[in-house]
Amino acid sequence: MKKVAVIGAGPAGIEAASLLAAQGLEVALFEKESQPLHNLTDKAFLFPNFADARQVSERLLEKLHTPGIALLKDTPVVSLLAPTAGGSWQVNGQGFDAVLLTSGYTTFDARRKEELGYGIYPGIHTSLEMEQMLREGKIVNTIGDMPRRIAFLQCVGSRDEKVGNHYCSKLCCVTAVKQAIEVKKLIPQCEVYIFYMDLRMWGQHFEELYREAQTDYNIKFIRGRISEAGGTFDRRVQIKAEDTLMGRPMKLTVDLFVLMVGMEASQGTRSLAAQAGIAGEYGFAQACDPHTSDNCTAHDGLFVAGSCKRPMTLTDTLADARSAAWEVLRYLHSGLK
Amino acid sequence: MDSADLTAAERLLEAEPSLKACIGCGGCTATCSAAEFVDFNVRRMHMAFVKGQQEGLRTQLNRCMLCGKCLLVCPRGVHTRSVIMAMRKELSPEEK
Ligand code: SF4
Ligand code: SF4
Ligand code: SF4
Fold it and tell me: Which of A241, A302, A305, B29 is the most exposed place for a label (fewest CB within 10 A)?
């Protein structure tokens, strides 16, 4: 029986592993954490339809019961070696006929944008921390009261050459709109602002969600990049931006300031892509061709799927994983191996 | 735009090509030291100049203290301080 290693038990890894196992392959699914799906289980609701992240996670986790999958938790992959003539791929010293890399992303460390004050002043949070508050259904300011005013800032760690990330992370725009709506559902009287450079509402129902944020929730959109944030004496946060559509510099004092942190290649992605010789831009893994061969790599038998390649939504990640599974099957059945 | 004279704008972009990458985010204006005290909007100034509009720019340009804070925040790596110096140089004689 052919053996496949899938590296990373996120949505892409689970989806692909279950399809490959259902086709009769023996799949080893490596996961460095003690539980799979940790980038999904820390979410409350998913855009654009506010699907309960827990239910979506459960549906994915059920797929792990497909016979033929061995889930190896707490098992980081430390070595990924290409086959020597006629041999097999070596993952942590074990041989495999094919390897699928699904080692995913990590979020940008907001401390790297020092001028935005994260980790220095109270009341400044990342979008992940906001998600956590939303999951708990409780949003409080720095003195434990209900916040009266919250500002979100887009593009933190993305589209920013100062941190070396020129790319757009693709899903923070809609995530901010989603989180802003959830805040308003919990605290209707709270004023909510979203500061943006461009609003990229490219996916199905994203634009509708944006419109709903304006018409039904009175969320205020200001086109301008916040360049500085600092603490005030009463433990609030003062931000500086230009309202570029009005042509006016502005200061705004808020109770909570939320940084929409972008996606970067995870540590695993960086090191495995480098080890296997498929490191692409920004530490992401490089596929052969974005149009016709987006799951194959420069090496026969090594495939890539999901956000280890670039920022990707959950929907796209799952579709990409299915496409990668097909490529792996085609490769294993082609007689190449 | 039809009647705009863009020769000075072209010279400016040639002198400081980084300005071509500006996305008008206003980060420079937001952080500007001079804007704290006087009516001064660095983004609006360089965007106007690039479109061939120079009215009133001389007085505005003189308000810049050349502190360079703006270039520390620009997400597109525009060398805003050099842009100001180049604008001062390329201003049309009527504006000078
Ligand atoms: S999706 Fe929006 S917030 Fe995220 S990097 Fe792109 S433009 Fe910025
Ligand atoms: S900060 Fe940079 S990109 Fe933003 S308006 Fe100023 S020059 Fe343009
Ligand atoms: S260099 Fe001029 S435009 Fe830039 S921040 Fe300083 S005063 Fe403002």
Answer: A302
Tell me, yes or no, if the two domains A3-104+266-333 and A110-262 fold the same way. Answer: yes
Mind telling me how many Å the CA of A314 is from chain B's nearest CA? 27
Cβ burial of B5 (10 Å; 0-12, 13-18, 19+) is exposed
Helical residues (DSSP H) of A172-276, grouped into ranges: 172-186, 206-215, 267-275
Q: What's the angle, vertex CA A73, arms to CA A71 and CA A2, rounded to 5?
A: 30
Rounded to two decimals, the pTM is: 0.96
Concatenating the DSSP letter of every residue in A251-299 gives EEEESEEEEEE-EEE-HHHHHHHHHTT-B-GGG-B--SBTTTBSSB-SS
- Tell which atom from ligand 2 comes closest to the C-alpha of B27: 1
Q: Which fold has domain A3-104+266-333?
A: FAD/NAD(P)-binding domain (3.50.50)
Closest ligand 1 atom, CA of A197? 7
Of all residues in chain B, the one with the smallest CA distance to A252 is B30
Quick check: CB of B73 below 6 Å from ligand 3? no
Reported ipTM: 0.93
Q: What is the CATH number of domain A110-262?
A: 3.50.50.60
Residue-wise pLDDT tens digits, A179-216: 999 999 999 999 999 999 999 999 999 999 999 999 99
Measured between beta carbons, the chain A residues lying within 8 angstroms of B41 are 242, 247-249
The one-letter amino acid code at B31 reads: T
Count how many residues are written for chain B. 96
Q: Are A219 and A199 in contact (CB under 8 A)?
A: no
